[in-house]
Each structure stands twice: as structure tokens, then as C-alpha cells.
Amino acid sequence: MDIHITTEALALPGAYMTEQWGGAHVFKVGTQTKFKMFAILRPGANRLTVKAPDAEIRAMLFEVGVAEAHSHLKRGNWMVLLLDRLDQDDVIERMEASYNTVFTALPKSVREGLASG
What we know:
Radius of gyration: 14 Å
Oligomer: single chain
CATH topology: Aspartate Aminotransferase, domain 1
Strand content: 25-35%
Helix content: 25-40%
Shape: globular
Number of domains: 1
Distance between the termini: 29 Å
Largest sheet: 6 strands, antiparallel
CATH architecture: Alpha-Beta Complex
Order of helices and strands: HEEEEHEEHH
């Protein structure tokens, strides 16, 4: 599923990937200086960190057992999706929701530049 997640993440407008924190694939949207992170994937770990659109969705995903809190990103509705408990379409939907959530928080000039380019 890692390859599919990476392919789908990089297909989003303005998305790119960096490798950080001991080999984690960190997906960002924006420019090199004005960006927002929208997903973190540790290849082979069967987990994807994303931002929930709101606290209610995050709580619901915790309750049904498909997500848990991230140990270092405690604020901002970040969560870890447990990939073995979700089908591929659900994972991609959650990742796209994370992308959309952070995209709207980018400066207007960056959003407009990504939309036109």
C-alpha cells in the first residue's frame, strides 16, 4: 500500500515529498519556503499520519479502532491511521481530507500560485 499512497499523494496539486526523521516520507503542499505537511509515511510500518478535518472525525476514527493519537503531534487533530484496518480507498480519502485541510491554511498567494501552475 506504501507505493499506492505515495503515488496518490504526489498526484495532488502542489504536493511533494521529503525524507526526514530517519527515513519517513513526509508529504507537503506549497513551496519550499511556505508549505504545510499533510501526511507522514514510514515505509513498511503500516501506519500513515494525517490531519483530520475536525476533532469529531478524529474521535470517531479512534472510537471505531482505525486510528490512534500520534505520539509527537498531539495538537491540531493529527492522527495515525492503522493501515491494516482500513481499505485502500478509505486511506486515500483520509489523506486527501488532510491535504484539503492544510491547503486552506496556506497563504492565499501560495494557494493561487499552485492553482495556476
